[in-house]
Amino acid sequence: MGTERHRRMFCLLLSTFLWGNSMAQPSLTFSLETLHDSLSWLCLRTAEREGSGPAGNSGRPAGPKTVARWRLDYPVYRLATGDLDGDGKDEALVGVIRPTRFYPQPERRLFIFKQVNGKIRPMWMGSRLGGILCDFRFASPYVRTLQSTTDGKYVVADYTWDDFGLAFARFLTGAVSRKEAMEKFTSGSPEKGF
Fold this sequence. Notes:
Layout: H1 2-22, E1 28-36, E2 39-46, E3 54-55, E4 60-61, E5 66-72, E6 76-82, E7 91-98, E8 107-116, E9 119-125, E10 132-139, E11 142-148, E12 154-162, E13 165-171, H2 178-186
Antiparallel strand pairs: 1-2, 2-5, 3-4, 6-7, 7-8, 8-9, 10-11, 11-12, 12-13
């Protein structure tokens, strides 16, 4: 009787393990498809190659499969990815040029999208940060920004994710020349706040 119970337990554990592995989510990555200067698609794709051999009669190997798309009806100047909110999945940081309700002039904006059950969902559609956004990049765990001031100077500032949106974390430079700011913005070394 004891061996029968052990055998059943082993079968249950084995089937749970096999079923769990077959239900595992594929690794997904963000990419950008640009159709023309004011229409792009943010795509969520499988990271691994689809299929193991030649696809159909073409003899070409199959590529990553697009599982979701989000239409961007404005010029896109940057795409960066990284785990901004600490959930273990990359978010897409998309730089777009567009007007907003409160700022009617087309300017550089930062939109953040996340993966939810294999779909793309907006996480934050920012109108403005502290200054005039020139560029950004992901420097884990920060969104590093290059911003200009109204008097023609530049600052480099880091932001972190704070449940609803980006929260200011620190300045890496004060108001400096563009050259000085670019050196700090592109620097790959660990930074100390200003």
